[in-house]
Amino acid sequence: MFLPALKFYLCAQPVGASTHSLDALGQVLVLHGLMSIAWDMQRRDQTSLGVVSTAGPASWKDLLSKAYDRWKADFDSYCLGAALASTEPGDASASEWSAFSAAYRAVYHAAQALLHMDFLDVQIYAGARHILGRPVQQQDYVRSSRVVKRWASNSRERAATAAWHGAGMLRDLMSGDGGSDPTGKPIIESPHLTSLFHVPWCLYLATLSCWAFHHAKSARRGRVEDGSHLHDEDDSDGSDEIVWDSRKEMDDLVAAMAGSMRDVVASQGRRRTNGLVWVVADELSKVRWGIVHAGVVVLRGLVPMRLINQYEVM
């Protein structure tokens, strides 16, 4: 049943009875199967020495992106049906289904974002000091900085897609209007998510994707315009302004980026990300996993404390 389900999603064939009979675990396993294929294809591209091209209307990234979308449609339908059939609204099982659905939609958004950005380079550009157990050297940072700035400037469709999925995840998990929790509270506050390691890591990924999308573009634009001192106030991206309300700034940013793809592209480099980075870092600081704490250090380093009005009480 596993391989036929993968083929259904990859080949865009009509969904058969075998996929409808998948339970919750089966749905999760199929998603991880698709992600494993993406990882294998990425490794193939890295070792092909330029022989294999990912360009064209039928590139493997396009096929996998559409497969992810088809999986999400079936997954949302399954979770909705299971939640309605389980118990009455407000019961504990209804909250569990909401948390389960949000947790693996986060994996879906992360998988889509990873198709459209080089996350290791984004982490190094953000200031990570160790990657995969290896210390980051100066030449690593210089190379990653060039990769990320080129991604933000020359691959705007890829960058916007990664940022859009990151914002979608943040809306689902961090915003009360994400529609994920029956009580109306942000789903990240659900006790059912605290023990899931992948949710904090997905939040870290989503935050860096949104930050890099805006910061790398604005930094590049700033260097180009550095020769002229005219219209300095118009050119400022607001990155050096005090954040008086971190939560509101985060909500405004996420709401603007989780809309249409055209809006995401139009807003590139013009949105302040300090509030988002600070709120997520504060949320992740409550997680006990060591690798997440390393991510918190990276996020904290992106925002000087002097710019956060609430840092003394957070």
TrEMBL record:
<dbReference type="InterPro" id="IPR051059">
    <property type="entry name" value="VerF-like"/>
</dbReference>
<keyword id="KW-0862">Zinc</keyword>
<dbReference type="GO" id="GO:0008270">
    <property type="term" value="F:zinc ion binding"/>
</dbReference>
<keyword id="KW-0863">Zinc-finger</keyword>
<keyword id="KW-0479">Metal-binding</keyword>
<dbReference type="GO" id="GO:0000785">
    <property type="term" value="C:chromatin"/>
</dbReference>
<dbReference type="GO" id="GO:0000978">
    <property type="term" value="F:RNA polymerase II cis-regulatory region sequence-specific DNA binding"/>
</dbReference>
<keyword id="KW-0539">Nucleus</keyword>
<keyword id="KW-0677">Repeat</keyword>
<dbReference type="GO" id="GO:0000981">
    <property type="term" value="F:DNA-binding transcription factor activity, RNA polymerase II-specific"/>
</dbReference>
<protein>
    <submittedName>
        <fullName>Putative c2h2 finger domain transcription factor</fullName>
    </submittedName>
</protein>
<dbReference type="GO" id="GO:0005634">
    <property type="term" value="C:nucleus"/>
</dbReference>
